[in-house]
Structure prediction request, 303 residues.
Amino acid sequence: MAPVPRQHITTAKIAEHVQRLGELYPPIRLDAVDRTIKNPDLVKRRFGHVIDYLARVELEVDRNVLELLCLLPDVDAINKTFYADVWRPQEIQHGLILDRLQTDLGHAPAQPHLEVSFKIKILGALASLKPIQDIARLLYYLTGASTERQAVLAYNSINDGLREIGENAISETIIAPIKQQEPGHFAFYQMSATAMIQDRVLRPWQLFLTRVLREKSYNLVGTNAMPQYKADMGGVLVDLAIDRDLSGYAREIGRVESRLLWADKQGLEFPPYILKALRESVDLYRERLERGLMPDALSASRV
Ligand SMILES: [Fe+2]
Ligand SMILES: [Fe+2]
Prediction:
């Protein structure tokens, strides 16, 4: 397998990146936010569902930390500093701020899914074996890169939309500061995954198994392999008009793994499982609409 490193990623570079993120971006304070909304009905109609979705996903960071501890029992100092001092504190604030925004819009508070799945527990049990833990680590970084990229794209799109309709307060004091913090998360996972491939941490059989597991377990951000969340994600894709070009979006969110895992498949624009997951989400959302079960009605029923 021939990865295409542009620049060698060293442990020191990743550590510097983590330190810089911590210094540049302290967690956003709840009282630094201006929640003035000029036209709540319009914001709710255009972005209500997307804000609900993102608030829940951001608040699920606590489960993501438990997953990390389960998959990587020998987690090193850089990863520990990243998740404990930078990533978790930032994401929790994103969740709390968005949760308050969605209750301002009259929605029910988010109900994050905080239970670690059986599949992760199984992989975690096997990860006491070093060769399996290395596979789990690469899978964890690839998941991080893809989901953080989805967050970057979603916040960019919401921010543009809010500015278009003149909702400057929440755009400038909520979405813009959140969106500023996401690319650093993406870069951490991208650098960490790239370093593993460049340093040839995995043997061919481990890379083969990583590809098989990735193909079988790929999930879009926040879908947790559960149909109701997949349908919710379909609604996000439709509301942000991403459904008009699913292939282009698959290329964006699959770039890191195309380069690192599938480099020997010449001409592969993105791994097919990504487009399949996107189509499945949009289909589940449309089916739900046809059955007359709107996402709002579903979230209200959880109150
Ligand atoms: Fe976030
Ligand atoms: Fe993030």
Q: What stands out?
A: DSSP finds twelve helices and no strands in the chain. The first helix runs from residue 11 to 24.
